[in-house]
Predict the structure.
Amino acid sequence: MRITSIIIFLCTSQVSLLGQFRHYDFIGAGHSNEVTVTTSSSTENISGERTVDGFDISNEDQLKDASRFLAHCTFGADMATIQMTAAMGYESWLDEQFELPLIPLTPVMKQLSALEEDENEGEEILFFFPYMEKAWMNNNLTAPDLLRHRLAFIWSQIMVINTNSDLFEDHGQLSSTFYDMLSQNAFENYRQLIQDVTYHPAMGLFLSHYNNPKEDPANNIHPDENYAREVMQLFSIGLWELDQYGNRKYDNNGQFIPTYSNAQIKEFAQVFTGLGNGSEDGVFGPSADDGFESISTLPMKMYDDYHDTSEKHLLNGLVLSANQTGDLDISQTLDHLSSHANTAPFIVKSLIRFLTTSNPSGPYIQRVASVFNPSKEGNFKDVIRAILLDPEARNCNPTATYTFGKLREPFLRRMNYLKAFPMSVNELGHFGTDTKCIGNTLGQSPLNAPSVFNFFLPEYSPQGPINQQYLVGPEFQILNSTNSIGLVNDVNLMAVERNYLGECIEGDGEEDDLNFMSQLDFSAEQAVAMDSDLLLQRLDILLANGLLSLDTKTIIKTAIDQLDDPEDRIKMAMYLIMISPDYSILK
Amino acid sequence: MTSKKYSRRSFLGAASCAAVGSTTFFSTLFNLQSMSAASLDNSRYFASSVNDDYRALVCIMLGGGNDSYNMVVPISNGEYNDYAETRSNQALAKNTLLPLSPVTYNQNELGLHPSMPELKNLFDEGKVAIINNVGTLVQPTTKSAYENGANLPFGLFSHADQDQQWQTSVPQINSPTGWGGRLADMVQYANSNQDISMNISLSGKNVFQLGQEASEYTILPTGTGSIGIQGYGGESAFDQIRTTAVSSLMEKQYQDIFKQSYASVIEASQNTHELFSAAVGNSTISTVFSESDLSQRLKMIARTIKVRNELGAKRQTFFVRFDGWDHHDELLNIQSQMLGVLSKAMSEFQSALAELAVEDCVTTFTISDFARTLTSNGNGTDHAWGGNVLVMGSKVKGKEIYGTYPSLKLNTDIELGGGVLIPGISTDEYFAEMALWYGVSKSDLLTLFPNIGNFYNTFSSESPIGFMNL
């Protein structure tokens, strides 16, 4: 179902309504036929009548809005993508994105490993994590399925695995197949996602329900409780009962209501017993872990001899019958969690925080939660539409609403820059992708969260005015005194030094790596480099999603007006934009 | 960039509190030994005071939940047998344990994990003490009270919550401040240099060091610890233009609180860096530290302590996180390696403090989310509650064990199923003891630890646990 009903958000100050028909709309929705708008309500004082369609630079506001839309749901976009999206309308663009096929990481990772294997003849191929990082960057910089990639990155921060162990460093296929699974499910539904996450060996190895046997009372051995706890606390229902507005409920004594007790954790732990190596000749038990050969990326399979067959008392009175197969127990448990009243607001609030705003209103959460249907085919498409096209997200004067917006995730800042300009890719696929190392500077990189709690907690509220207003700013948790300077310097490295590899190039091949580095094409910027206003106008749309204030533009203009060299002017403008508060807070 | 003076805001805060007669927070403050009651200007007092007035607390967070009933293990026959029976395949062999000979503790014989010989030596030298079965508590509790859910910490057994509550010591709420932060709210203005937070983190943001006013200053274990904006203050024309523009962007006042928050962080980080790197400069330590991340971070703490006078610091706290203790899997192998790293790093740090002649001035202590279930899950253990902790320093009454080492049998009065133990000592008592050593007055303990009155009478002549030489 499309969101075409009575929703008002039009990036205009006046609308000519035709007859009695009120067509509520927003720029880019693709409903702009015959709608004539009179100028923009943004802070720029450009007046005159324009039509919504058409995307030359005179339709600056339309491009800004499209750029901002793309900032909400992609890793960034170049001008051609911004123009195309503005022309298509957001719903059409989403529809197109939903249809694009998945381009998985795993084959790319294997291909990159094999290329180097040729150079090291005779050595066993290990798919080390760095190949996974290269594949990740390769796909994210080149593949057309922009929306799916962004969703996969978000899910990797909700259903977190940590790859900082020898096992994951040596076997990149664990991470790549896990990530591909998240990508595959990005437009499916929650029930399928939680099924695939639960059975994926990377999750099993990380949260230790891989080779987790049933209780052995004679030896005081109980089932591992790790996955049982986190699947509830983090992947589905959360710790506290919520209403559909995402607010915690109170009991009669004014206390928050826990969703489960420790005793119930023990019941859930019994459910997740008996899973192990998914390959055909797999065996249950520690021996299955030994050696490289036995690491399977197939979904874990159930070894019923090791599954706890007792009755299991789950939440809200649900009892799983004794003597069921393990797969049936898990299936009913995941149905149970998927349909729990908390899951819609809990998951939806989390997605909204990653996509559009740290502090969504209750009604925004409720509107999206009402669309959430865990078992409906392709339901995530509806959820994504509902989040991105909601009036709260598409508010055309976003800078006027101080509660709306979020600190951009630091790794997104890096990607925004790399995605904004046409890139020439060298044949070996060298993108300079020691993402973990870059992550050490920024506090974030793909699949590198320090724990299952991700890089930052969803309810983190930084000291100062945000906390004083009882708001949260999750991403501020990693904006400490070193990461904050680190990200300014990372922008310097890219925009001023034009080194996209990051600070830490490993190995002996430093020169080689720099030579192989992909290049960005700044010819469009060079064409306007000597005209400060035109340059800033372009970069505002391209990098800052039209969010630069007049004050910020004045500061930057003053700086570049002192420079004569066109490249220096471009570098300075890009650097200052990408570190500016106006850019850093995505509204 | 122009700095915002910490001192000014804090000191005005203090003055205004006093003006309205409030007795909280900045009032009676400290019983710092030679502090003159007539001395209203504390910062002047501290600035002119002698070096040996320096004190620092170093908090080592063992993130993930250290299985501390395998760190400190009973050796006496009966108790070891209970341990072995309950822990099953996660029990350590008795003959591998390092037996401890405490001065007075005689409830049972205890041993340290075999991979901790360095800490065993420090224990023998009287510089390390062990405190048994410490945990998050709102008030003393019992099994039946637990089963009725009466006044318990929220989110028991959950990492995110217990990790935080060990830092805040206010386990009934999601406290925005930690006790190191509240401590800094009280004393930061006493440091002569107000531009560098007295709370320094080697592990980024943490709630322990967050107060109403105070926040952590994060440094790295490498270089001079801090980093600055490249090209800022540089001499080239490009850098001069950059410097002006960056300052303008970050010093501007933004109506949007998110933008303002971001700009403030960048501005403060650059300002502090300039001061901090100048002070730490090439400060070196001769003591050899291992390559482990924890050792390297503790080394940077030692280097920072070395330049305490240049930093104008009379009081500091340090926070360092050592993650990876969530041993649902591979407990025996991995915990053994990690305890080895911890033991070496703590011992190297104590040697460095001796090198700097500040052993009396620094107390180091461990915290962790929780201990782990006494029973096994096959090849690991799960989330539990009360656990054992280590405290190190010359002012610690070391070679001693405090609190009751609990029975490790199942189905006892303090055992909640699966080998989860109700703590015998609250985090409040543990931390309050160190706060008293740090200079907090007994009456101010109530400000620092809102629940302390449930465990300790602040009018008592005794200290909460007794492990510090006050």
The radius of gyration of chain A is 25 Å. Chain A touches chain B through 81 residues (CB under 8 Å). The first strand of chain A starts at residue 36 and ends at 38.
